[in-house]
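Budget justification, computational time. The allocation requested in the original proposal was used primarily to generate structure tokens for proteins on the priority list. As evidence of use, we reproduce two of the resulting records. The first is shown immediately below.
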Amino acid sequence: MILDALKMAVGTLTTVRVPAPGVIDKRVAGGAMVLAPLAAVPLAAFASLLVFLGDLVGLPAFASAALALGAVALGSRGLHLDGLADTADGLGASYDRARALDVMRRGDSGPTGIATLVLVLLVQTGALAGAIAAGHGIATAAIAVLAGRGVLSLCCARGVPSARPEGLGATVAGSVPRWAAAVVFAVLAGAAALVFPWWQGLIAVVLGYLAASALLARCVQRLGGVTGDVLGGCVEVAVAGVLLALSF
């Protein structure tokens, strides 16, 4: 089960090629969401490497930050950014729940989604640039990527419904025991507290989780639950929250 869960996490969240899981059920899906930070370790390492190389060759901090975040987006097929834009379009649509979900299902992005995407990316890039200028950009890039994927277990905890009867959201919704989501948070917060001044590391992970929780609560209220797009949106706002807390 654990191996299948890791295969699902890596195959879904990154461009790394892995064999397909032998079976995908609620247990495997829940395990995949718990293991999401582990699956994202290659992305975190590559982002940190680009920050290091940028500093080594004297690139401006903003350019290094943009390259690192761009590499993470490419390494995850732009999955979470697409989800953020679609979620913003759905929440911004002046329609009922069914129409909002229909807007999110479309392949294009409207003005609300594009504006949200640009603003969140600016916040992420500017915050990471601040961390680079402050001398801890390498660790910041890694922690932000891992903590951003860590909120997936929160979003898929027991009691969080799916907005649709089909799709990725239906597969993973409610699949993670609450204690497992709490363990993921504790591990990430503890790691951040060890790498940074303990208060700053703890605040960073808490802020990322709070940002994701706020978006999650709004989506459950407005859409009736989570979708794959909502999960992606929560990842991106969590990354922004972590980066902001570590930007000085």
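The second record produced under the same allocation is shown here.
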Amino acid sequence: MIDLASTHHHGRPIDTTFDLGDKAIRLLAQARDPFPIEVALAFSDWAHQLRAALDAILYQLAVKDSGQNPPPGESRLQYPLATNRAAFDREARRRLKHLSTVSIAAIERTQPYNIPTKEHGHALWWLHEVARIDRHRLAHEFAWNVRGVQLDLRGLAGAQVDDCDHTLTYVTHKQKTWLATITPPPGAHPQLGSSVAVVTWPEIPRWHSAAVPSYRQYGLTDRMTNVEELIHRMAQYFAERAGS
């Protein structure tokens, strides 16, 4: 996914411009092109495969508990991910009624509401959410997340720089995005050779901006890796419980 984005943009995904005002200079950025659709499709494949892995874990638990393959109620089996205990209990009555109470209790312990940050800080809930949105609505829209701005402002020593929130600023091809405002001291003027370097990373704003700050601080690929590692650990845990 990252390779697709990097190849498409040839290492120069965004352009920056200085907007010279009477008293201040605004730094603006805009992506050269939209992300290629192949990036969204690659992410879609990732999300659906990982969400399906949760259902595969549940299916094997149902086989183990019932001693039948296919297990009873197989058409209703779906790994539940609930935001509160009442919602989980409703899902358990619909989808888990043929599992043992021990298995249901183990599944309940993995639910997003069991951690302090609740669902917006829980990797499994976000996997479920991004897969659901992609499946029922539109492919996720990618943007360049600004992770840092480095300015080399010649002739502007002592200038005041007010910059953007480097965590929640996204640059797209649709319009120019404000990155910083530079207020020169009296009598100072920019000189030729001033430059800017913007550190960016592909991101899905819908996922990133709604996450809790402690989860949001990680970039997209780090969060994706976290999801993969969590599901791998869950598969190992439930396999040990099933004795296989």
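A brief technical remark on that second record: The mean pLDDT is 89.
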